[in-house]
Amino acid sequence: MQEISKGANVSLTALSEDAGAVVVSLSWSSVSGAGDADVSVLLLDANGKVRSEDDFYFYNNPAAADGSVQLLGKTPTGNGDEDRIGVDLTAVPEGVERIVVAASQYGGARFGDLDDLRMTVADRSGEPLVGFSIHDAGVETAFIFGELYRRGEEWKFRAVGQGYETGLAGLATDFGIAVNEEAEGPEEAGDPGGAGHGADAVAMEKAPDAEPEPVAPAPAPAPAPAEPVAVPAQTRGRGPRTTTTKKKVTLPKVAKSSLAENDSWRPARLFPVPTLKSDKEREVRATSVLLSVMAQVPEFGRRLTAAFGAPAGRMQTFTEVSLPHGDTPRRPDGVIRVERAGKLWTALVETKTNGNPLKPEQVQEYMDIAARRGYEAVITLSNDVALEGAPMVDVKIDGRRKHKVSLWHLSWAEVAHQAQMLIRHEGVGNAAHAWLLQELLEYLRHDQSGCHGFQNMGAAWVPVRKGIEDETLACDDPRAVEVVESWERLIRQVCLRLGGELGQKALPVQRVRRGSDPRARRAAAAERLCLDGRLTAELRIDGTSSVIAVTADLRTGKVRTCVDVPAPEGSYPLTTVKRLVRLLAEAPADLHVETLVEAGNGPRGTLERLRPEPGDLLPRGGAALTGFRLSLIKGMGNTRGNTEPGFIRSVDEAVARFHQGVVAHLGPVEARAGRQG
User: Fold this and answer.
1) What angle do CA 142, 143, 149 make, to 5 degrees?
2) What is the mean pLDDT of residues 297-310?
3) At what angle do helices 478-502 and 461-469 cross, to 10 degrees?
4) Which of 175, 342, 354, 391 has the CA that lies 20 to 30 A from 234?
5) Looking at the predicted structure, is the pLDDT value of residue 677 above 60?
6) CB-based contacts of 11, cutoff 8 Å, min separation 6
7) What's the whole-number mean pLDDT along residues 619-628?
8) Are the beta carbons of 249 and 430 closer than 8 angstroms?
């Protein structure tokens, strides 16, 4: 990958023969784990202005109708976040000369608070082409990272690194969008519970040019849809918001009342599973069900393949395709083909269910077949969760081959998460698509489907836990690293499930600097596990400062979840204490509340004891009150799997109970991560 400095430019076609579509990545890290930013993309004409507000893409307008731009969302890294954008340069309209890639912050946050600001551009296969790092960020609240621009028949990349103290509104104004700020309540901002940030909404209009644009004849009205049932997609309650006439269909969380005579009557399902008896049957059925829904629901198929470099276009899917390979043909579980402007993008799919591991030799064969046939990708799909710096399957890439094949991995938990995000929060094109996704979710959640995500802590779990209990585990035991990796996979899956329920991304927080070796980080965590017997993690809800700390103490057999709530500045201590107790009126009675003071330890007790006497939380001796630590403690499962007494289920339930019972009631109170331990 070529590194360039601020102001420099480079030709993408000179760096890769496969630069017709690129994936742009913006990344950053934060020592506190609370730093975040939102990406945006502007398409500019020869005058350096947007042609209309449709040329502005952000979280409420994430994709172009022609497939030229697609915001792919955030991906947690070992040190922070990475926000990716798919750009199909072959589909960019002729009138667009520049594509500006920017990011903005909100709530008074500045880019100087973030570390390792960086932009990279990769080709269609995922091969990084060029990178640019920003080192001079300060008080800016919006930043142009870089831009893609035309020069004749080729596209080039320029490293910009220009900041704005006026936020996204100031940046957007520079490119021809008039910004009108007006206060908006939390309910209007997509926060019906009133627990949002209360940020201003920004309605955007096309700025007037020097000369008025010619008025085109009004187009004929489009025919009304057959089914007018529609629910607008929710907004996230901050930053720019553009109005749109497009409607999205979501499904209510509460099911309609049943017409069955009794509970023994089971509703008919499109994808039945009770007859599945073998792993092979589960794999065949799961592959066919998933691929068919991907082809029939464009939003869903695009969501799962865009991150793998697939263009936006007509998708067809196939199962049990026979492909030549030596003397014996091979049959991948599935094939995905996407057609765009006469070009085909093809991926082979290898599926595993019921916790079965992927076979390296099998995946290697598919990589070789894909390379020979000119296919773009191989996608593996299993219950396991991929980790940064830890490949799911080790394969050998023949460097002599001109054609590159990308290897990607999906977890069944991620498939379920994306389906839930669409039908519960973001919406799809019509009611039939929403119903199909709901049937897919019902299938994935069935006990017999084998598609339940990560559900086994591995063979090292029992001996490591026993070694910690009897204090015989050596600090250099490699099995401890295996347990730490399984723990990270579990936390990532917990984030997927929590985010699917909330309609917002939940991301693991890694308090290390960008660029550190993930293997070294896991080795250090394994050493801490051997010394104190604890597995620790932090989860952050995207768009908020709420960070949930999770500690699994293998010596005591307890799981602790906690957050730190800062005290409002300038308020009286007794008023602050009473307000907190009122906010927690519906919280569990066994919630532990501890007062945080500048030095030493403050009073603590359970919410049940403190409700009648909130004054017991006041610091003694005139110590300054800085905040509160809220904690819930529950028993930890004994087995390594996801059964009723299992460790995985106990952690998942602990986080879900803590967020629903505690964090959700805090409302506008900003919650920080509680100290581990």
Assistant:
1) 135
2) 90
3) 110
4) 175
5) no
6) 151, 154, 155, 156
7) 85
8) yes
Find residue 85's DSSP bridge partners.
24, 71
Query: Do 384 and 357 contact (CB within 8 A), yes or no?
Result: yes
pLDDT at res. 32 = 61
Query: Please, what sign has the CA dihedral across residues 510, 513, 519, 520?
Result: negative
Q: Please count the helices (runs of H) and the strands (runs of E) in the chain.
A: 13, 28
- Inform me whether the pLDDT recorded for 323 exceeds 50: yes
Q: Is the pLDDT score of 600 beyond 90?
A: no
Q: For the chain, give percent helix, strand, coil, nearest 5.
A: 25, 30, 45
Look up residue 109 and give its two tokens.
């946050």
Task: Give the SS3 label for residue 597.
Answer: strand
Q: Over the stretch 427-450, which tens digit does the pLDDT of each residue have? A: 888 889 999 999 999 999 988 899
Q: Who's near 400: CB < 8 A, 6+ residues apart?
A: none
Token pair 């082409």: residue: 129
Model confidence over 643-655: pLDDT tens digits? 556 899 999 999 9
Output the pTM of the full model: 0.69
| Count of C-beta atoms within a 10 Å radius of residue 645 | 12
pLDDT at 203 > cutoff 80: no
What gap in Å lies between CA 485 and CA 525, rounded to an integer? 10
pLDDT tens digits, one per residue of 513-568: 655 788 888 999 999 999 999 999 999 887 677 789 999 999 999 999 999 998 88
CB count, 10 Å around CB of 93?
Answer: 12
User: Given the structure tokens 């919410």, which residue do they identify?
Assistant: 607
Beta strands in 352-418 (DSSP E): 377-382, 406-411
- Furthest-apart CA pair in the chain: how many Å? 84
472 within 8 A of 439, measured Cβ to Cβ: no
Distance CA 632, CA 44 (A): 51
d(CA 491, CA 211): 56
Does residue 573 carry a pLDDT above 50? yes
The encoded tokens of residue 399 equal: 């460097």
CA–CA separation, 43 vs 26, rounded Å? 17
The closest of 147, 161, 145, 20 to 91, measured between CA atoms, is 20
For tokens 């400095």, the residue is 5
How remote is the C-alpha of 300 from its chain's centroid?
15
Q: DSSP letters of 456-481?
A: B--TTHHHHHHHHHTT---TT-HHHH
pLDDT over 70 (residue 213): no
- Structural contact between residues 39 and 83, judged by C-beta atoms closer than 8 angstroms: yes
Look at the block and give the residue holding tokens 């793998």. Answer: 308
Q: How far are the Cα atoms of 7, 640, 642, 651 from residue 526, in angstroms, in the given order?
A: 43, 17, 22, 19
Tell me which amino acid residue 629 is: R
Distance CA 129, CA 9 (A): 12
CB atoms within 10 A of CB 280: 10
The percent of residues in the chain predicted with pLDDT above 70, rounded, is 83
* Structure-token pair, residue 152: 């004749």
* Partners of 151 in beta bridges: 154
Least confident stretch, 272-281, 458-467, 481-490:
272-281
Nearest to 334 by CA among 284, 293, 372: 284
On the question of pLDDT at 231 being above 50, the answer is no
